[in-house]
Amino acid sequence: MATPGALLSESVLGWSIFTIVLLVILAFCWVYIRKYQSRQESEVISTITAICALAIALITSALLPVDIFLVSFMKYPNGTYKEWAANNETRQQIENTVLYGYYTLYSIILLCVFLWIPFVYFYYEEKDEDNSNKCLQVKNALKYTIGFVIVCSALLLIGTFVPLESPPNRNSTQWEKVQYLFEELGSSHGLAALSFSISSLTLIGMLAVITYTAYGMSVLPLNLIKGTRSILYERLENTEDTEEVEHQIDKLKAKCADGRPLSMRDRRNLQDLEAKLQVLRRQGRHLEIAERNCCNKVGSINFIDLYILDKALHSAGISTGFIIFGTNLTNPLNELLLALQPVFPLDYVLITIITMYFVFTSMAGIRNMGIWFFWIRLYKIRPQRTRPQALLFLCMILLLIVLHTSYMIYSLAPQYVMYGSQKYLLQTPLPTADPSQGNHTAAITKICDADAPEDQCTVTRSYLFLHKFWFFSTIYYFGNWAFLVVFLIGLVVSCCKGKKSVIEGEVDADDSDFSDDEYVH
Predict the structure, then answer these.
(1) pTM of whole model > 0.85?
(2) How many CB atoms lie within 10 A of CB 173?
(3) Predicted local confidence at residue 498, as pLDDT
(4) Which contacts of 313-319 are long-range, i.e. CB under 8 A and separated by 24 or more positions?
(5) Which residues contact 249 (CB under 8 A, 6 or more apart)?
């Protein structure tokens, strides 16, 4: 028989593992950001901001397995509630601990996205070379940040006052309708407002996932399998190209050895050749470094396509956010997570691997593409040479991607995210030979899904946050199709491309010798 002591020990287990994961996340973010930040232009405030923003997003994602664990261990495998969980108030208290955790973390995310990161970004954008007028920097940064605060306020207001249900009395007066709105706001404790704001950010994160993660997911595995070109061959090729360009420069300079001026065409060719020679020499220096640190790398099943196919065939339609009732297509990942969940924290480990896979593939996409605003490339992301503003942009994008990862995990394993390993008893009538003997029923144990009775299965708090508004779920559904299309296009492009250079993305024509010195040291 379960006792309050058992309740306490299991609850402590979940939160203890979460604390350990939290410390690991902080260490990972510190190492990851330090790897990419510029050594010459690094700023303490931007570094701390980037580390904290990325860490908060990952910690929010790490709360999901704890949420699932807490709702799952309320029940026995036969579908009945444990003795201590039979009381609805006890279950509510446990759910509230997770709910307040989400309130705190999501509020901090709003603070980061709409106040902290914009302020720090514009603070460094307004920085003068002599760095003399700090007050003017702060003033201008605050001026631009106010726009983000206004957007955040608008999202919170929309989420607050757009009711999901109409007032119970259709003939009520306007004042009664207003009263109903405030009563709904009070009863939800701001859940709708926060959910709408976070869902809006998740929507932006979906665009980043379609742009960067889908491409990175196709590029990263193939690059690992194909490896890179031979460093010795690249160095030989670089030496030959350098000698050829130097020879062409010498021929042009020989024309003016007797004091005659070069023609306009020759001067233009000389400038182009000298610029090309600088790039080749920088490539040569980077190839030397790569040769010293040589590490040739040697070499997925995507369950998202299975999920969206299931939704397309068996969901309840667009007006419900394409929600699925029951199990129609067998989802291997969903089944695996459901099997691992009772052996906590094995499912935690798998969820962490999936989340980090999304982070690394997103980073691969960002590194290959850079950060763009339509057709204008804003920043390049390279190890040890990423400027403070680019670092903040990078962490903003990764934050939004990780935020959307919670929904992506729901796409991969919907039953697991909604109910964990909960089961419930379904009463089914038994056929009787003699109707006078009355009706007999039998209890059948079923896995909880969207078709289960509300009083028999407890929904995770994460699901409530992400699916409060059905139209977001509908947009996410079509976003998954866009993700699949971009992934397939990226896969075709990656297959057609040859092996990449060992210094691909490290040297560009617009780089300076200053950036080379920064990389070498």
Answers:
(1) no
(2) 9
(3) 61
(4) 318/474, 319/470
(5) 270, 273, 274, 277
Residue 333, pLDDT score: 75
Where do we find the tokens 């199990």? 327
Look-up of token digits 């057709």: 375
Residue with token string 């309320």:
74
Contacts of 19 (CB under 8 A, 6+ apart): none
Q: Please provide residue 478's backbone torsions phi and psi, each rounded to the nearest 5 degrees.
A: -70, -30
Distance of CA 131 to the CA centre of its chain: 35
Tokens at 119, concatenated: 């302020």
> In the chain, which stretches have pLDDT less than 70?
1-11, 128-132, 162-190, 223-236, 286-331, 429-440, 498-521
Enumerate residues 6+ apart whose C-beta is below 8 A from 58.
25, 28, 29, 355, 359, 402
Which phi and psi (to 5°) does residue 426 adopt? -110, 120
Under a CB-based contact definition with an 8 Å cutoff, are residues 39 and 521 in contact? yes
Quote the pLDDT of residue 190: 67
Residue 444 class from Cβ within 10 Å (0-12 exposed, 13-18 middle, 19+ buried)? exposed
Q: Which of 192, 175, 52 is nearest to 112 (CA)?
A: 52
Q: How big is the chain, counted in residues?
A: 521
pLDDT of amino acid 261: 76
Beta bridge partners of 37: 386
- Torsion-angle region of 367 (φ positive above 0: left; ψ -120 to 50: alpha; else: beta): alpha
Helices (H), 255-331: 264-292, 304-314
